[in-house]
Write a structure and sequence with these properties.
The protein has six helices and two strands. By secondary structure, it is mainly alpha-helical.
């Protein structure tokens, strides 16, 4: 695929796509689930928990931080990460709005059967 023409799409559509891209790797989902489970900020524990190299985890953390899903705070020589609650609520509302657009009673299969 070529370069996307983001200007053809609404800010909302571009935002959903950007967040979805940041969530598109299973290691990032594992990081988010771990942070949600702990309900605390973590740093080195992620390496032990996920079994990935520190450099790999750092790259995934960078992706999540760039989109605002997580936030970091400096504690001594380390950065601890946790879920950004404001951004989490924004994402929850954004996806809820998208998913609620589809009526649960409609089905493409039933309308195709009629043709």
């Amino acid at each position: 695929m070529g370069t996307s023409k983001n200007e053809l799409f609404s800010d909302r559509q571009n935002q959903i796509a950007a967040v979805s891209k940041a969530l598109s790797h299973p290691a990032r989902i594992a990081i988010i689930e771990y942070l949600l489970q702990l309900k605390a900020c973590v740093n080195a524990e992620l390496i032990d928990e996920l079994g990935l190299a520190q450099a790999t985890i750092s790259q995934h953390l960078k992706e999540l931080k760039e989109i605002g899903i997580i936030q970091g705070s400096i504690q001594g020589k380390r950065i601890s990460y946790c879920i950004n609650p404001e951004r989490w609520d924004e994402m929850n509302a954004m996806y809820a709005e998208l998913f609620q657009q589809h009526p649960s009673t409609s089905s493409c299969a039933s309308s195709q059967d009629e043709n």
